[in-house]
Amino acid sequence: MLALRLVRGSRPLVQLRRLLVAAASAGSGFLLLHVLAGALDDPAGSFPRLLWALVPLALTVQLAVAVARTDPATRPPEGLDAAGLGPLRRALVAAVSTAVSCTLGSLLALAVFLHLRGQLTGLPFDGAGTRLLHADRPLPVAAALTLLAVLPLTASAGAALASRVRPPRTPQADLPWGVALTACGLAVEAYAGRGTAGMLAGWSLTALGLALAGPAVVHLAGALVQTARPGVLRLLAGRGLQEEAGRLGRALGVLCAVAAGALAVPALREQGGLGAPLGPLTAPAAALVLLCAAATLLTTAVEARQARAGAREALLGLGTPGRVLRTAAALRAGAVLVVSVPLAWAVAQLTYLALTR
User: Fold this and answer.
1) Does residue 307 surpass a pLDDT of 90?
2) What confidence tens digit (pLDDT) does each residue in 313-343 have?
3) Distance CA 66, CA 297 (A)
4) Using CA of residue 117, residue 120, residue 125, residue 127, what is the dihedral sign?
5) Contact 32, 147 (CB under 8 A)
6) How many CB atoms lie within 10 A of CB 257?
7) At 5, is the pLDDT very low, low, confident or very high (cuts 50, 70, 90)?
8) Is the Cα dihedral 330, 335, 337, 338 positive or negative?
9) Is 140 left (phi over 0), alpha (psi -120 to 50) or beta?
């Protein structure tokens, strides 16, 4: 009951982030239902489509976990520990908050899907979605509810685990693993070619490798800011970026992987074209993946800002002008762009070479 009250009584910006998670959950749920409906007509080709539909689902889970980490209800004042809101209760609050948002999105996806199939109030849009959603076949209710339950359960478990305090890791600790997994992903793409399963497996390994190497990339950006006799402003920006490397790095690595895929697609289409693994919904699914990756990075930046609140207040108390802090924040954002854009471009080029060897 306390968890639900904390969820309901949050500020508008917090509720907006939860609505963003609900919207992403609705998109992922709709894709899963589309795959389920397509499996009724083509059972043999349903498994590859399901694998591709898991990509936006995974990015939605990542977004939900990032939103849960920025939720003030999961980071209460120390005085509430005496009221019983300890680490376990905070994990429960994070799980409940995430479950509410994702379940709302899944129910919305089900309602829209059934409406477009004409199973609620008749066929909308003159029946334009009948063929696309295979409305001529009955939808298995148990299978649909099972698929829609995957996202809330997975996201809730991830949010509960993410709410636990972990000791900080050195940004370079996972760099060798990240480079190795990225190389393995490119090798799998080169070996499998443009086959659905092989290309998806290769891209997934590449994305995981970039996520592991991301903290080292952000740490490098902070080091570059401080090179060549830095002043106070560059020291403030560079040191702050290095401290945030662990938070921003994972989300930045995933966004770089998504951007690399988006950059490689036009060139691959010119060399013979790519298939549409999710049919007419392939482009909306790709847009959902890109938006989830970008929203996760922005949400993680909000978490980093929350973590710097104490240091920011201390600097302002010492008389530091607000303009200096804003310039340092802009410098950090520029440094991240300087290192991430070439990384995404290089991975895109390597992906193109691997798939067109």
Assistant:
1) no
2) 888 887 778 888 889 889 999 999 999 999 9
3) 8
4) positive
5) yes
6) 29
7) low
8) positive
9) beta
CA distances (Å), 346 to each of 186, 313, 343, in order? Answer: 12, 40, 5
Instruction: Give the up-direction half-sphere exposure of residue 216: CA atoms within 13 A in the CB hemisphere.
Output: 14
What type of residue is 316?
L
Q: Are the CB atoms for 38 and 46 separated by under 8 Å? A: yes
Unique residue bearing structure tokens 């240091």:
311
According to DSSP, residue 43 is labeled: G
DSSP 8-class letter at 229: S
10-51 pLDDT, tens digit per residue, is: 677 888 899 999 999 999 999 999 998 888 777 776 788 888
pLDDT, tens digit, 9 for 90 and up, residues 36-93: 888 877 777 678 888 889 999 999 999 999 999 888 766 655 545 555 566 777 788 8
Tokens 């949050």 correspond to 10
Q: Determine how many CB atoms are found less than 10 A away from the CB of residue 274.
A: 15
d(CA 312, CA 223): 21
**Residues listed for the chain:** 357
Mean pLDDT of 222-226: 91
Q: Is 196 exposed, middle or buried (0-12, 13-18, 19+ CB in 10 A)?
A: middle
